[in-house]
């Protein structure tokens, strides 16, 4: 039989392509289960530069994964060493001497030394940083380089809060020689680098060579961003993503009830949903009226309706993961309509009108309609006024203090100190509270806990606000993927512990 | 083909009531009845929230309850009120602005007519939804600002129609006779022009009503319409959207109401046009 060159060529193509195709298929399948993972998220970063761009999405993706700080916050809310292996605090609580890890390099090969730390802390204080959070660095007086691996930070006054803030984005260490185009390039000391950033779609982290610490298990982690929660749910159901970190529609948890296919992680947050009352003017100047509001609202019912039973009662401005959480405050104001009516008539404000100005956010609107329903039941007339968020709400309520009552999600960590600021929109001016917060920041770690416990109890006694609930951070993960942080306490979504089992 | 057309045209000679008019009137009637009933009776108070959330339809809750434990059927009844209210006010507002401007541009001096019509063209360039969002941002979101915006955006349709109708009427012999009898322009407009174009305007109003209902639902969906807690079909749709895949019926009920109501007003408009529009006269 004569085989023409043409047939040979055709055969060759068939054989080669068959081999190539099977090779491809098996290769990629094996790879996707062993060394890569895709996580679904909701809010997308505008760019890669969190020194000038506000918002949670950029540090969520980059902090701890690409950029590292001297210290980090673990998933139980405790401060842990990272680039600093240990630190000593002087007896007056003002000087912090950090011992740095040895042999740390940036992903471009540059060395990380004590000089780098000095440059970074001074950089936050300079005009290069424009976000408001940079003010947490104001307390730093000077930075002294002792030697290559030792650096002393001198504070102008003792501050427990400063070390905690060093776990957030302001503590991130940049390469002084590669920080000109932060919006597009990210050079850090962390185990990952940004391989791709596709605006509107995804951000791909890839493991780098020569990481100083323990190598993470996964080569590649992709954050995929969904503006539509239903699309995100479908993506997990179809298997195109491996986990959803932070489920936006909690009622859709029922879609993932099959425990052989999905694990649901019910994590904690710092996000207190606060029913704020204007303490400085109107009927809520009277503590009895504020207490009446606290008695009149069935917070457990709101948790059921608004958060599919995942929210938690807090009773003050402290989440359970902070060391000064006091569980006895949770029941300080049980749901008691008679008691509420009694206090209202005592204060002489029966039938008063409440200007309830809320931002146009879906979860706020749902909570506000329930609050309105409860307050109407005890005889108030509630005028619900929905303001566009952020511009109008910030202008009228937050800045202008032109409101009686509002609701917003206070997501920042350890924000009980906002009540010590009499110009904040709470309108709460209590010298005793202010001195407790000041003493807590200046004292030892133990003193900090006891003073802030007293402060939280004082807030509850004065019924400054009604703390409706603490939001949960619900994640849905494929059961074989481990190491996805359950809680959202710091600013980062640390993916360095992710692994397939 | 012409043979086939013939019998159909001959039946049109009798001034029968068009089927679309009947269907439209029935649907609109139902919406009006639902709104009226809601004033005296609803199974539950539609603004009271409970923890009996996401219940399936039952004898107690005819269409179940929503995510905040409110009765869906009661909300739909009260929502019909908002729908009618918004439609009446915004279409009325559009007619009050549009019709006098249209007649004035036809009866007044030529330069004034041109000026008014160019102004109307300018107004036409703003879509109703965009205008409503601008109003909402400027004056705060309320039913009233939404109605004003929809009204202003639909006014050009009335103005153009009134102008073309008025031009036709003004060229007739009886208007000439009235002018010879030294009747004033206003008198002519009120006694001759308006009654003769009223049919057309009613048809236009009915069609615009459907558009207004749709626009209000869209605005409520976007959060620029009637603020909570007053139930509206558009906001019910928006609140149900997040749980669409777990509780699909909560989306279906308000959506069906909106579609059927808009269809009803359009059918009514079609039917009325078949009866009143002079352009259809030739076919009869």
What does the model show?
The complex is a heterodimer of chains A (501) and B (284). Chain A is α+β, with helices and mostly antiparallel strands and 501 residues long. Chain A is built from twelve helices and 20 strands. Chain A has helices at 5-34, 57-62, 114-125, 160-165, 229-238, 287-296, 299-307, 337-347, 362-377, 391-399, 431-442, 445-462, and strands at residues 36-41, 71-73, 79-81, 84-89, 95-100, 140-147, 150-155, 192-198, 202-207, 220-225, 243-245, 263-267, 272-277, 353-359, 381-387, 405-410, 465-470, 473-477, 481-482, 499-500. Chain A is 30% helix and 21% strand. In chain A, strand 6 (140-147) and strand 7 (150-155) form a beta hairpin. Chain A has a seven-stranded mixed beta sheet with strand order 8-9-10-1-11-18-12. In chain A, strands 4-5-7-6 form a four-stranded antiparallel beta sheet, covered by helices on one side. In chain A, strands 16-13-17 form a three-stranded antiparallel beta sheet, with helices on both faces. The longest helix of chain A is centred in the N-terminal third of the chain and has 30 residues, at 5-34. With 284 residues, chain B is mainly alpha-helical. Chain B has a single domain, classed as Orthogonal Bundle (MetI-like fold), CATH 1.10.3720. Chain B has ten helices and no strands. In chain B, helix 4 packs antiparallel against helix 6 (143-170), helix 8 (185-222) runs parallel beside helix 9 and helix 9 packs antiparallel against helix 10. The longest helix of chain B is centred in the C-terminal third of the chain and has 38 residues, at 185-222. Chain B is elongated and about 75 Å long.
